[in-house]
Specification:
By secondary structure, the protein is α/β, with parallel strands linked by helices.
Length: about 450
């Protein structure tokens, strides 16, 4: 089937799904395949549940059934991506091509994306990536959420392998782009920090080749260098003149002062619900994009101030017993160091660190965990709890005063008998460690 025909079916459908369990009726079901699943096996069931059509692999058994609602293609993932790209290219706003803002980075992608969504939403109808659906499946699904009301799309792109961003920009075709930062993460896939820069820099490569513009934080030397190395790339610098204000008991969240757009000598206050100075660049990125699109500065700041993080990202929680700083969605050496620096700035008679091992660091894993051990004293913690095999390996040659547990569930069980009270508790770790399991016991 030609892409034009598939697109016509999409326009008549109620949307796209890759999960037969979410069907409500009238959707296009794409039978994707992975290492541990084969959506082709669920295509017939999807049609029975109300899917209008099912896109299946031509070589699959179900494709030979003869059902006219089955659409055989050589590769279902490629068909999904092609449909998303075609939809992106044929969506117009006031007769002009829809503007897509693409962003990637080592840390802060989802928080930045949500802040951008909030700021632009003060003036426009925005379609943005839901959650962190930022991979080769999530990006096309996000693009296919664009509808006739959409005025701007914000698409988050993640990467754990060298060419991931190149593939994702080829689908999303961003007009504007932002790299939040580059740091040590997914080293198992990228090989080195230089590999990270090269991979994330593929967003800049695309913008350079297609006449796009890149928002670049002036205070980030890596990003400035990466942008400068791409001759002809048009950049929009941002972040100059902003000040991060100190946190205290009365103001535990990130506070900032940013220059007024009308008079840079006047500073405007920004009181967020985000924890940690490491979120300051994320706020500045959102405000810069808002300014570019003509969102009144007061409205942009108000949107940032209203935004409250969720899903264990930069959250501060107050329980009956403790104050929790929860940043347990993911972790890498850069974000872990930033979290420790942040907890060091919080005034408390008792601080407890509950840190889970960091994943996907390859041959650098033990060395990077040792660096975290060496950094622990800066936090001024009264108790340190470490979780996971990688921290165990690091502790063998670099013992520190701490408790070590195999899993976060074991920590949760231990806390039932050894409760923590009247403390500021940092909970952080890679997704694989599931550090959120300790939260109910705190």
């Amino acid at each position: 089937m030609e892409i034009e025909q598939l697109y016509a079916l999409f326009l008549r459908s109620t949307g796209v799904t890759t999960d037969s369990r979410t069907l409500k009726g009238g959707e296009l079901f794409f039978a994707l395949k992975g290492e541990n699943f084969d959506g082709n096996a669920y295509a017939a069931a999807a049609l029975e549940k109300g899917a209008a059509y099912a896109v299946v692999d031509a070589a699959s058994e179900v494709a030979a059934s003869g059902d006219e609602r089955l659409i055989p293609v050589p590769d279902t993932l490629e068909a999904l991506q092609a449909l998303a790209r075609y939809h992106r290219e044929h969506t117009l706003v006031d007769g002009k091509r829809l503007t897509v803002v693409g962003l990637t980075g080592t840390n802060g992608k989802t928080t930045t994306k949500e802040l951008i969504r909030a700021v632009l939403g003060a003036k426009y109808v925005v379609t943005a990536t839901e959650g962190n659906l930022n991979n080769d499946i999530g990006v096309p699904l996000s693009l296919l959420k664009i509808d006739a009301r959409t005025q701007i799309a914000v698409i988050e792109m993640g990467a754990s392998h060298p060419d991931d961003i190149a593939h994702l920009v080829a689908v999303s075709e961003p007009d504007l782009g932002l790299i939040t930062n580059v740091g040590k993460a997914h080293l198992l896939g990228f090989g080195s920090f230089e590999g990270v820069k090269k991979a994330k820099g593929q967003l800049y490569d695309y913008l350079q080749a297609h006449g796009g513009k890149a928002f670049v934080r002036s205070a980030d030397p890596d990003l400035v260098e990466m942008a400068s190395a791409r001759k002809g790339l048009e950049t929009i610098p941002y972040g100059e003149g902003a000040i991060v204000l100190p946190a205290d008991a009365a103001h535990p969240f990130l506070r900032m002062a940013v220059p007024s757009e009308e008079d840079p000598n006047i500073l405007l206050g920004v009181e967020t619900h985000l924890v940690g100075t490491y979120n300051a660049p994320n706020v500045l990125a959102a405000l810069a994009i808002g300014q570019y699109f003509g969102v009144p500065q007061d409205d942009a700041i108000a949107a940032v101030c209203r935004y409250e993080p969720s899903n264990n990202r930069s959250q501060m929680m107050r329980t009956a017993d403790n104050t929790l700083v929860v940043d347990a969605y993911n972790a890498n050496p850069t974000s872990m160091a930033a979290a420790l620096d942040n907890i060091a700035n919080i005034v408390s008679d008792r601080k407890v660190l509950m840190l889970g091992s960091m994943g996907e660091l390859g041959t650098d894993s033990v060395a990077e965990h040792v660096k975290i051990l060496e950094r622990l004293p800066v936090a001024g913690a009264t108790q340190v709890i470490l979780v996971g095999e990688e921290f165990r390996k690091a502790l063998e040659g670099h013992p520190v005063s701490c408790l070590w547990f195999e899993t976060s569930q074991v920590v949760a069980d231990w806390l039932k008998e050894h409760p923590v009270k009247d403390a500021v508790v940092l909970v952080k770790g890679s997704r694989s460690q599931q550090m959120e399991k300790v939260i109910p016991e705190l």
